Every structure is written in C-alpha cells, then in structure tokens.
Amino acid sequence: MELDNIIEFKTSPRLKEILSEFGFFKSYKEGEIVLKENAYIKAIPIVTNGSIKVMRTDDSGREIMLYYIIAGESCIMSFMGAFHNDTSKVKAVAEEDTEILFIPADKLSILIKEYPEWLNYIFSLYHKRFEELLEVVNAVSFKKMDERLHDYIKKKCEMTKSQTLYIKHEQLADELGTARVVVSRLLKQMEYEGIVKLARNNITLV
Q1: CA–CA gap between residue 46 and residue 141 (Å, rounded)
Q2: Are residues 31 and 82 in the same domain?
Q3: Same-domain status, 23 and 87
Q4: For the chain, percent helix, then strand, then coil, each to nearest 5?
Q5: 69-110 per-position pLDDT tens digit
Q6: Of 77, 82, 87, which Cα lies nearest the Cα of 53?
Q7: Is 144 left (phi over 0), alpha (psi -120 to 50) or beta?
Q8: DSSP letter, residue 168
Q9: Is residue 100 part of a domain?
C-alpha cells in the first residue's frame, strides 16, 4: 500500500520504503480484537485505513474508553511496550473494518537511530495521547455522566463524519464505564431536550 498521505508527518522517501519493507499488513473486521491486555507486543500498529479504539479493563471486567486511533496514527502504549519488551496494559478493538501496518519490535531501534523524523512522529503521538488521557481523567473526575455522554457522542460523530451513530446503548455504557440503564435514561432525557433523536440501535445528534 502507498504510504503517502497516510503517515501524518514529514518523511523521506527512504523512510516510507523502509516502513513498507519492515512491516506487514493485516486486516480486521469491525469488533475484532487487535491487541489483548497482558499480551506481549511483538509489533506496533500504524492504522492505514479505518480506526481502532483503545480501552482499559478493571479487575471486575468493566471497560472504559481511552482514545481512538485513526488512519495515519499509531498506539504510543504499544510502542512503549514493544520497545521495553513489556506486556500490553490496554485492549485495542477495530471500531470499523480496518487495515493496519505492523512494524516488528526488533526494527524500532533501527528506525530511531537512522530516521529522526520517525522519532518526531512518536513524540507527536505521545503528546496527543497524553492530552487525550488528561481529558479522560478530567471527565471521570469532574464531569457528570450526562456531560460525558454528550461529549462522547459529539466526538464519535466528528470521527465518523456523520450525525448518526449506529451503536447500542450497552456499547456506549461499556465505553463510558457505566450501566446501560444509566445511558438509556440519559439518552431519553437528551431526546426530550432536543439534543438527540433516538431510533433502534442508532442515535442522531441534532
């Protein structure tokens, strides 16, 4: 696959060749697990088409969404785990049909030493993910669930470039770390206030 306009940082033609040479592509269907928690990371993913969501699970099995990875981006947590031969602390799931370029962990040191723009790419991703994780902490700590739900719906609409989300209340609850009945009640209230329109398994942001 041509990497132009996919990797969102300034690259030399040689680096693009190296990424294609080192890496291998793999496709995932919507809902497929890309990376399991506690699994050793043998390669880092660069999303070339589609998107994946990164989640954290607690001891009771409850999940919370951390951030999305879209085309042109990688998972900084995977990078750190692969670089230090550590296990994954998160779970990554295909949000839609997705294609990923995997770069083997044993090639990372070569990329860092020989291609400064690769390191710039990693640092820029680290900065973006750090800000997103701060937003999650801020939302969980200081925002009410109705605010978090509204913000989350807006964010998913922006990412999908659609005002309608095809999603079940249970999935929303899982990704926000709350109960389905809470999400359903809040969505009904949001519909009453004219913020959303509800239909079977879809939500339209007004």
Answers
A1: 31
A2: yes
A3: yes
A4: 45, 25, 30
A5: 988 888 888 888 888 888 888 899 999 999 999 999 999 889
A6: 77
A7: beta
A8: -
A9: yes
